[in-house]
Amino acid sequence: MIQLLAKVGINGFFFALIGMIVLAYFFPSFGTEQSILHLPDIAEYGVSVIFFFYGLKLNPEKLKSGLSNWKLHIVIQLTTFILFPLIVLGIGAIFSVDTTSLTWVGIFYLATLPSTVSSSVVMVAIAGGNLPAAIFNASISSIIGIFITPLWMSQLLKQQDAAFEITPIILRLCLEVLLPVILGFLLHKKWGKWTERYTGTLRMFDQLIILMIVYTSFCESFANNMFSNQSASEIVELGLLMLLFFLVVFGIMLLVSRWLKFNRPDKITVLFCGSKKSLVQGAVMGKVLFPNPVMMGVVLLPLMMYHALQLMVGSMIAQQMGKKEAS
Q1: Which residues form the domain of 161?
Q2: Does the pLDDT of residue 257 top 70, yes or no?
Q3: Separation CA 159–CA 180 (nearest Å)
């Protein structure tokens, strides 16, 4: 079980994320924009490097092999970018939620994000799903999210700031995220094998940048007492809500895949690619969508909780499905 958890992300990095929040609580001054260490600036440049290497890793042949199953791809992408936000908006309308609350903004932001790549593919492989389709969907989701996530968020952020402009945000994301991915993808043939050789080193670099983003975000929030009005019970309630959110989407995906009569491998791919959300993309796009760094820690909290729960619960489900496949 320990090895399985490590494969899907419950490892040293997972606990380091928690450690960054604790570190930010006790030492917030080191991660603010006024700090002489300039960690927020370093993290911003590091993001573009992360996505350049991500583009280098994209294998055109593997993407082509997963391209043909269009019905499966449509279901996964509609779940990721349409079903998730509609569920949140529906709950907000039913319970008359205060949409100006930063926690609510964070939950809606989580709902609009693309699917995660690595853990989705690993869980599909463990459960015995359609691996080429999983690789295709997880990869294409990251690109689509550069445009769809800001468009969704613009509807909410305009309510809070009439001067909010979506065009500069998309242009900045294209420059900092999409352009490095495209450059990396074009250079895959030349340097792709190099990324395979140094996969471990590149993963460590990715994780270091994400840890830096999380640390600096929570530093700003703690330094400005953004969590002073949130009790421990409210944090626990938020965690339970994120768990329920994951299970509801997972259940809907199970029903949809049965209704569409997908075979077992495709059904598994729908379940694990459609129910995931990317912490990497969330941390990266959050720096652009929320220029006020004081907000970021609060906004990222629901995503970090969902990220942890999708890894823990998803890995247990994947293991059980894998056992059924083997029996």
Answers
A1: 2-319
A2: yes
A3: 32
CA distance 229 to 298: 11
Q: Is residue 91 part of a domain?
A: yes
Helices (H) and strands (E) in the chain, counts: 17, 0
Whose CA is closest to 310, among 249, 250, 251, 246? Answer: 246
Rounded to whole angstroms, how far apart are CA atoms 120 and 135? 8
Domain harbouring 202, CATH code:
1.20.1530.20
Instruction: Give the DSSP H or E segment for 68.
Output: none
**How far is the C-alpha of 22 from the C-alpha of 17, rounded, in Å?**
9
What is the value of pTM for the model shown? 0.86
What is the distance between the alpha carbons of residues 265 and 205, in angstroms, rounded to a whole number? Answer: 33
| Total of domains in the chain | 1
| Residue 22 included in any domain | yes
Domain contains 327: no
The span from the CA of 42 to the CA of 212, in Å, is 9
Encode 233-290 in three state secondary structure: HHHHHHHHHHHHHHHHHHHHHHHHHHHCCCCHHHHHHHHHHHCCCCHHHHHHHHHHHC
Structure tokens at 64: 């082509």
- Give the model's pLDDT for residue 166: 83
Q: How far apart are CA 157 and CA 98, in angstroms?
A: 13
Give 47: exposed, middle or buried? Use CB within 10 Å, 0-12, 13-18, 19+. Answer: buried
pLDDT tens digit sequence for 172-213: 888 888 898 899 888 888 887 888 787 778 878 887 888 888
**Cα gap 248→83, rounded to integer Å:** 11
pLDDT in tens, 64-107: 766 677 889 999 999 999 999 999 999 988 888 887 888 899 99
Instruction: Answer left, alpha or beta for residue 9, where phi above 0 means left and psi between -120 and 50 means alpha.
Output: left
Inside any domain, residue 140: yes
